[in-house]
Specification:
By secondary structure, the chain is of the alpha+beta class. 49% of the residues lie in helices and 16% in strands. It folds into 2 domains: 57 residues; 130 residues, no CATH class. Strands 1-3-2 form a 3-stranded antiparallel sheet, with helices on both faces. It has a 3-stranded mixed sheet with strand order 4-5-6. Helix 8 packs across helix 10 and helix 9 packs antiparallel against helix 10. The mean pLDDT is 90. It comes from Streptomyces glebosus.
């Protein structure tokens, strides 16, 4: 039985709509678009190709940006294995003092893809380490603070972020200290200094 083109588009649209208009070639194939049909839609400007095997419906480009569209794109690039982390996650939680110039993402240790567009960190995140957003995952405020301490993030920026997180009730001192101890001495030292500055 032939699939109605409207049904095919509607199926792909439902997938893309929760991903800010982005979708992968595999998702398009699952919706009923052959690779030949995908090539056609790209060549005729119906879809914008943003990366290898990643597309976006043209209609979404004209919508007001929410500021995190690129995070959805990179989540798709990683096949959902990456989580926004470190300084980028602090910005997403409104704890960062400045928007980082490059996106930080944490991927599993066995992740093999590479790109110069991201700063990739390798770690095994637990379910409690991440929060779901529309189209991507981001590390929790607690995890993001400890990550930044572990990589030697600017201590002044870390002090400000931790003070803000404490005042907003996003983290507690005991949980912050415990999480830092689990990550390592550098994280523990950075967190202790930030807590001393906040008291």
């Amino acid at each position: 039985m032939l699939t109605d083109r409207t049904d095919t588009r509607a199926k792909l649209w439902r997938t893309a709509s929760v991903q800010r208009g982005y979708f992968t070639a595999a998702q398009a194939k699952d919706a009923g678009y052959s690779y030949q049909a995908q090539r056609y839609h790209t060549q005729h400007g119906n879809w914008l190709q943003v990366d290898r095997a990643i597309y976006r419906f043209r209609e979404f480009v004209d919508l007001p940006a929410e500021g995190d569209e690129q995070l959805v794109r990179w989540s798709l690039w990683s096949k959902g294995r990456a989580a926004v982390s470190h300084a980028t996650a602090l910005t997403m939680h409104d704890l960062g003092t400045a928007s980082p110039s490059r996106i930080h993402m944490t991927v599993p240790r066995n992740f093999r893809q590479q790109t110069d567009a991201l700063i990739l960190h390798r770690a095994e995140l637990t379910e409690g380490d991440v929060e779901e957003r529309v189209g991507y995952r981001v590390t929790t405020p607690l995890r993001a603070l400890v990550e930044c301490a572990a990589v030697g993030e600017d201590q002044n920026a870390l002090d400000i972020a931790i003070a803000k997180a404490l005042s907003q009730g996003l983290v507690t001192q005991p949980k912050l200290l415990y999480a830092a101890q689990q990550v390592g001495p550098r994280a523990e030292l950075g967190v202790e200094r930030a807590l001393a500055a906040a008291s």
